[in-house]
Amino acid sequence: MKTTLLRYNVIFRPEPEGGFTVIVPSLPGCVTYGKDLPQARVMAADAIGGYIKSLKKHGEPVPTDDTSFFTSVDVDLTKQAHYA
């Protein structure tokens, strides 16, 4: 059986009540939760797998993050105030 490895960027957002919400930006609506980082990672893999299975079932293309990456952008709000 051929193995295909797909790579996805995920965002782990800590929640005030504890745990982490996981968002998969390349898969709109693919969001899950874990009580801690290890569980959130497992839940993310499960949610991504289910999402991809649904895409394939409906004959839709399966996006990946092979060519994309995340970085941060700093925004100086004091400078933006001058444009308002």
Automatic annotation (TrEMBL):
Coiled coil: none annotated. This is HicB-like antitoxin of toxin-antitoxin system domain-containing protein. Pfam families: HicB_lk_antitox. InterPro entries: HicB-like, TTHA1013/TTHA0281-like. Residues 8-64 form the HicB-like antitoxin of toxin-antitoxin system domain. SUPFAM superfamilies: TTHA1013/TTHA0281-like. Gene3D superfamilies: 3.30.160.250. It comes from the Bacteria.
